[in-house]
Every structure is written in structure tokens, then in C-alpha cells.
Amino acid sequence: MIRITDLRHKLLDIPDLSLVARHIAVIGPNGSGKTTLLSVCAGLEEPKRGRVQILGKPPSAAKIGWVGEFPDRTLLFSRVYDEIASTPRFRHYPCTRADELVRAAAEAVGIVHLLDKKVSALSGGEKALVGLAAAVVDNPEVLILDEADSHLDAGTAKRVHRIVRESPAAHVLWCTQSMDAAAEADFILFMDGGRVRHHGTPDEVFSALEGTCFYPTIWRLRS
Ligand SMILES: Nc1ncnc2c1ncn2[C@@H]1O[C@H](COP(=O)(O)OP(=O)(O)OP(=O)(O)O)[C@@H](O)[C@H]1O
């Protein structure tokens, strides 16, 4: 469970929210607080007031895989292999185990051909895939992705959605501007002005958003 209690931080104002669903999409207009909420849940920002508990622990104690909105700002190593290997190496895994994990993550994300490349030579979408491989390499308890699909072509985005859906993480907290992707989540948070304005299943949330630009295109076409 992800439990939010009396959270006040920057523009966020979320009195009480318990999230038990596995695949949770966070949607809402620009500047509504999605990234801020994900950053607090990932333990990257300490809230001014209130708290977030991830699986009964503070975020800093949970095993979290994080993919930021701007991979250029979050990838630290010059070689793709070293970026994906950073978590197993920080955890002092034996070299052979770290190598197995890196190759399995690269295989799952479809970037084995990039392993020996320099990160600086990659496209934006390739960097996003490297960030995803680095986030899933050591089977995080919770996977948090901030618009990880925004740089990707439609086919690659579909593959990423599948990887994320099939991830063994207890929760995937996923911010996206693709309402069609959000429609496949188990649970949706719709944010506006730092508050959670709607939450529930895709049916519940999107029925409240019918007639707005947040209604999924695939749903509009089928009706
Ligand atoms: N200390 C603060 N107090 C109140 N609001 C703040 C503070 N710091 C930043 N903000 C506002 O928070 C908003 C940024 O929120 P955030 O990046 O979480 O939004 P977002 O929903 O992820 O947006 P986008 O879809 O554009 O990525 C901005 O409008 C910014 O001005």
C-alpha cells in the first residue's frame, strides 16, 4: 500500500489517500503537481508537512525504481552498461550477478545493442529506455515513472507500457499524458492545482472527465 497522510508540500495538498491498486496512473494538466507527488513518493523530496509511506516504510527505506521526465538530468554514467549496472554495483552484488541483471534488463527493454554506447550519443527516446532499464534492473518493490513514454515512438511506447504492466513491482506509479495508456491502469489519480480531484478506476475517473481533453481517444471512438 502507498499511504499519504496530511501531505502539504509546494502546491500539493492531499489530506488522506491510501493506494492499494498495483498499476496507478497519475494524470492532470501541466503544473498540476504530478511530478511533485511522484518525487515525494520516490523519496527525492522531503515533504514540508505530512508523510508518505510505501509498503509501510518511508520512501527512503523502500526499494524504488525511478524514471524521471528528463533522462538527460538523471543519467549519471557515460556508458550505457555502467548506467544500468550502477544499482547492482552500489548494492555490492558480485560482478557476474550484476552482469546477468544488466543483460536481462537490457534484453527486456530492447536495448542490448546500446550497451557499449556512450549515453551522450543516444537519442532522447533511447535515453528514456536506458533510464527504464536502470530502474527495473534490480526488481524494485515500487516503480515510479514520470512521463517515461513522452519521448517514445508509438511502437516503443507500447512495448514500455507492456514492460511496466508486467513488472513484478508491488506498485507502479506512472504519470502519463497518454489517456489511452492511463485507461489501462487499475486506478487513476486525476490532479489539478496540487489536489487529487478524482480518483478511482478508469471507468469512474473518465466518466467524470467525459467531454474534456482528458477523455481517452480510444473510448471516444468506440462510443
Ligand atoms: N514552493 C512551491 N509552492 C507552490 N507551488 C510551487 C512551488 N514550487 C513549484 N511550484 C509549482 O508547482 C508546479 C509544478 O508542479 P509539477 O512539476 O509537479 O507539475 P506537473 O503536473 O508534473 O506538470 P507537467 O505536466 O507540466 O510536467 C508549477 O506550477 C510550479 O510553479
Automatic annotation (TrEMBL):
Subcellular location: Cell membrane
Cellular-component GO terms for this entry: ATP-binding cassette (ABC) transporter complex
Any GO molecular function: ATP binding
One Pfam family in the UniProt entry: ABC_tran
Keywords linked to the UniProt accession: ATP-binding, Nucleotide-binding, Transport
Sequence ranges assigned to domain ABC transporter in this UniProt record: 2-218
Superkingdom to which the source organism belongs: Archaea
Main location: membrane
SUPFAM superfamilies: P-loop containing nucleoside triphosphate hydrolases
Keyword Nucleotide-binding: yes
Coiled-coil segments: none
Function recorded in the entry: Probably part of an ABC transporter complex. Responsible for energy coupling to the transport system.
Record's protein name: Energy-coupling factor transport system ATP-binding protein
Organism: Methanoculleus thermophilus
